[in-house]
Design brief:
The N and C termini lie far apart (71 Å). This protein has 4 helices and 26 strands. It has one domain. The protein has a 17-stranded parallel β-sheet that branches. The chain is an alpha/beta fold. This is Receptor L-domain domain-containing protein.
Length: 372
């Protein structure tokens, strides 16, 4: 005969097993309040079900007590009342993909060491604090301004995308002191500082645009760029001392007066430089398929002439050249006299149009990433 104690113990085991099953498997959990979220997570240290934050959710969403999230967390297309995402105990996460969360101001995961992807979009000043993470697949974050704390992050296997392209944007700093590699980097908006001292490899497209006050861009260790390097906006200087060889197209569109010196570049594919450029130098360049410089200012083309000569650049087809403002025509490199004669007549129309097309292309390149 089974005693009552044994019977109750068996029921307890079954209930515990049922609760554990609820933590690990089942349909997507939709939560519309912190109360509903806490109830779904109750007694779970590991949670394996997808969680969707409903559009009616208001305030902070806390995942306290959970150490392992093995399924995705997402939001409804629009959750206007969500203000914070708090993961105080989570060590292993999966991903967090948010739709429109205009009031979101904080994402905190102080103990997290494993995470796949993060996507946040807000109109507020946004703090993102994940201090222990060393690798992640992708980070895609936008806000009025950004306060980012990733002091240990070394590798991004996918994309790093940061922007504050909203009305009333405030300058934000990009500070990743240990980041070494990323597949794609997109930084646009009003930027106050870019600190990537160890960045070595950007395997796909790299796009950096600043619409704020002019800042210095120094990427001291960047040596591997394969997809493309596009830099546009306000920069007081651009330094790429470790870039020796690349098949990528290098496009620079300067809004502020800018002097450029590619001190170490030996081999390049295509280089396009437009905007307010005063001079450009390529002291080590021995091979290039195309160099096109079109400045809105009176540009010193000595560096271009030297590069054209020492790299055996094809200047006869008109695809390469160095041009200043509509009243200034650069002295052509050897073999470039025909284009110079045409430029004396048509630099304000033909060359100006070419420069405009390149500027428009770079601008469109950046706008593809804009959210607002």
């Amino acid at each position: 005969m089974i005693s009552h104690g044994t019977h109750y113990f068996a029921i307890g085991v079954l209930l515990a097993a049922s609760a554990a099953a609820d933590c690990l498997s089942g349909s997507t959990v939709v939560v519309d309040s912190q109360t509903a979220l806490a109830a779904a997570l109750a007694d779970c240290t590991t949670f394996g079900r997808k969680i969707e934050i409903d559009s009616s959710f208001s305030g902070a969403a806390s995942f306290a007590g959970v150490t392992n999230l093995s399924a995705a967390i997402s939001t409804n297309l629009s959750v206007p009342g969500l203000t914070e995402i708090l993961l105080p105990d989570v060590v292993q996460g999966y991903n967090f993909i948010a739709g429109s969360t205009p009031r979101l101001r904080n994402f905190s995961a102080p103990r997290m060491t494993d995470f796949l992807a993060l996507r946040l979009d807000t109109e507020e000043a946004l703090t993102v604090d994940i201090p222990l993470i060393t690798a992640i697949d992708s980070i895609d974050v936008g806000g009025k301004t950004l306060y980012l704390n990733f002091p240990m992050l070394e590798n991004i296997t996918g994309m790093l995308s940061l922007d504050n392209e909203v009305s009333s944007a405030e300058p934000f700093a990009v500070d990743f002191p240990l980041l070494r590699t990323a597949t794609e980097i997109v930084i646009t908006g009003t930027v106050s500082n870019i600190y990537l001292p160890r960045l070595k490899s950007a395997y796909s497209a790299t796009q950096i645009g600043n619409s704020g006050d002019a800042i210095a861009l120094d990427l001291p260790r960047l040596s591997e760029v394969t997809g493309g390097l596009a830099i546009g906006g306000n920069f007081s200087s651009i330094s790429l001392p470790s870039l020796v060889e690349t098949n990528a197209t290098i496009s620079i569109s300067a809004s502020s007066p800018l002097s450029l010196n590619f001190t170490s570049l030996v081999k390049a594919n295509t280089i396009e430089i437009t905007g307010n450029v005063t001079d450009v130098y390529f002291p080590q360049l021995t091979s290039a398929n195309r160099i096109y410089i079109s400045s809105s200012l009176d540009v010193n083309c000595t560096g271009y002439d030297q590069a054209a000569a020492q790299s055996s650049l094809n200047t006869s087809d008109g695809s390469s050249g160095c041009y200043g403002s509509s009243t200034t025509v650069a002295t052509p490199a050897a073999g470039h006299s025909g284009l110079a004669e045409i430029a004396k007549i048509g630099v304000g129309v033909g060359v100006g149009l070419g420069g405009f097309i390149i500027l428009a292309a770079v601008a469109y390149f950046f706008c593809l990433r804009g959210r607002k």
